Amino acid sequence: MLSYEISAAEAAQLMREKGVRLVDVREPWEFAAAHIEGSLHLPMGEVATRAHKELDMDERLIVLCHAGVRSMNVTAWLRRQGFEKAQSLRGGIDAWSVEIDPRVPRY
């Protein structure tokens, strides 16, 4: 079974291999301020109503937020729902900006 968290470097590698879907659970204003291109915007408050309609249980999912707390909570919920390949991006989009892509604004 996959770990509940994944590092920014590991996530970037999976993205290069096209083997992952990014799920951004931040609020709309946060997503507008900074996001990773190609990520699905699914605010945390909408996950329960949209996850089973918009996410594939067999797909590798990387859930992200600002610093990693909300994404870990969503990842735990998704795992309980049967999304066994869901992982939280450790450090969130902030870690992504620092470690992978400084073009993504920090806030």
Write the layout of secondary structure elements.
Layout: E1 5-6, H1 8-16, E2 21-24, H2 28-33, E3 40-41, H3 47-54, E4 61-64, H4 69-80, E5 86-89, H5 92-99
How many helical stretches? 5
Question: What is the H level of CATH, i.e. the homologous superfamily?
Answer: Rhodanese-like domain
Please report which band the strand proportion falls in: under 5%, 5-15%, 15-25%, 25-35%, 35-45% or over 45%: 5-15%
**Spatial strand sequence of the major β-sheet:** 1-5-4-2-3
Q: Describe the sheet with the most strands.
A: 5 strands, parallel
Q: Low-confidence stretches at least 5 residues in length (pLDDT < 50)?
A: none
CATH top level class name: Alpha Beta
Oligomerization category of the chains in this entry: single chain
Number of domains: 1
What does it look like?
This protein is of the alpha/beta class and 107 residues long. It has one domain (5-99): 3-Layer(aba) Sandwich (Oxidized Rhodanese, domain 1), CATH 3.40.250. It has helices spanning 8-16, 28-33, 47-54, 69-80, 92-99; strands at 5-6, 21-24, 40-41, 61-64, 86-89. The chain has a five-stranded parallel β-sheet. The longest helix has 12 residues, at 69-80. The chain is globular.
Quick take:
The chain is built from 5 helices and 5 strands, in the order βαβαβαβαβα. The chain has 107 residues and is an alpha/beta fold. The protein has a single domain (5-99), classed as 3-Layer(aba) Sandwich (Oxidized Rhodanese, domain 1), CATH 3.40.250.
